[in-house]
Design goal:
CATH class of the largest domain: Alpha Beta
Order of helices and strands: HEHEEEEEEEEHHHHEE
Number of helices: 6
Strand order of the largest sheet: 1-7-8-5-6
CATH superfamily of the largest domain: MutM-like, N-terminal
CATH architecture of the largest domain: Alpha-Beta Barrel
Helix content: 10-25%
Number of strands: 11
Number of domains: 2
Largest sheet: 5 strands, antiparallel
Radius of gyration: 20 Å
Distance between the termini: 28 Å
CATH topology of the largest domain: N-terminal domain of MutM-like DNA repair proteins
Strand content: 15-25%
DNA sequence: CTGTACTCCTGGGGGC
DNA sequence: TGCCCCCAGGAGTACA
């Protein structure tokens, strides 16, 4: 799925269109997503306007003017497209696009901006691992989606000390600990691999074996890789693009992720990137410089 | 407590 | 061309 940087970029891209916009109509496909839509989903939405858009972990939160908030998680393959005025803009670029078919359009929202311009928001999700929910705005933090979530990695007060506190005595491999949203939110398979590579930390190291110094470096690199990715995506999403939805410039060049067999980017290292499986998911790392 | 296996799904790509 | 198998950026649950 979209990890924190992608969700942040999408949220930021939606802000100028959605904040203040009024929901004129909502239509749903006949498929359910990860969960059923909540009772009265459409009724709460239609006629409401969006106040603020926020991000928490990998969720987009759309605060409405009726004390409810829309909670959106993109799962593995969720994409959001805005269409209006003969143009469309798709906020994805990180997920395969060729398979996009309207048969997987599950949520369509007709909107009207404060200036009276009409447009549609379309949520497309082939694998349907995403979710849309409705939560009382003042109960978001204790809702089932958010109650167990760990700290935001980009918060100023999140540092190596805070990470070690969250890890506690956990002997699980550091790779899996970082994917655990109860310990730290927003990281997924890609950025965990990248941050561990940058920090020269072996993904199979027990989480509780990290020194304070290693944790400091790891957190510094987590922030770095997330901020670079947000910076790369953020600048491309300012306006509607033409109908092919091509944003460009959002391609990541990964150091370790998906580079099995490639030379370690550090020429002085001379190692080769390897792929192993942890928790049923691929881990890419350099066994020579990650200790 | 741990770790693992499996679940929800579709689609792309490689091998044959 | 097709078929089969593996893989995919998430995350919850069940079970030993």
């Amino acid at each position: 799925m979209p990890e924190l940087p992608e969700v942040e970029t999408i949220k930021n891209g939606l802000v100028p269109f959605l904040e203040g916009a009024k929901i004129k109509n909502v239509s749903l496909s006949s498929y359910r997503l990860r969960f059923e839509y909540p009772e009265g989903f459409k009724q709460y939405l239609i006629g409401a306007s969006f106040n603020k858009l926020k991000r928490r972990a990998k969720y987009i939160i759309g605060e409405l003017d009726n004390d409810n908030s829309v909670i959106i998680h993109l799962g593995m393959s969720g994409r959001i497209t805005l269409m209006g005025n003969g143009h469309s803009l798709t906020f994805d670029d990180y997920v395969y696009q060729t398979g996009a078919k309207t048969v997987h359009d599950h949520v369509t929202i007709d909107l009207e901006t404060t200036k009276g311009e009409e447009f549609k928001l379309i949520y497309n999700d082939p694998r349907r691992f995403g979710l849309w929910d409705l939560v009382k705005t003042d109960e978001i933090e204790k809702s089932k989606h958010f109650a167990h979530l760990g700290p935001e990695p980009l918060e100023d007060d999140f540092d190596g000390k805070a990470l070690l506190e969250r890890i506690g005595k956990k002997a699980a491999p550091i790779k899996l600990a970082l994917l655990n949203q109860e310990i730290i939110v927003g990281l997924g398979n890609i950025y965990v691999c990248e941050a561990l590579y940058m920090s020269h930390i072996h993904p199979e190291r027990p989480a509780n074996s990290l020194s304070q110094k290693e944790a400091d470096l790891l957190v510094k690199n987590i922030k770095e890789v997330l901020n670079v990715a947000i910076g790369a995506g953020g600048s491309t999403l300012n306006d509607f693009r033409h109908a092919d939805g091509n944003l460009g410039g959002f391609q990541e060049r990964f150091l370790a992720y998906d580079r099995e067999g490639a030379d370690c980017p550090d020429k002085k290292c001379g190692g080769k990137i390897e792929r192993i499986v942890q928790g049923g998911r691929s881990t890419f790392f350099c066994p020579k410089c990650q200790k």
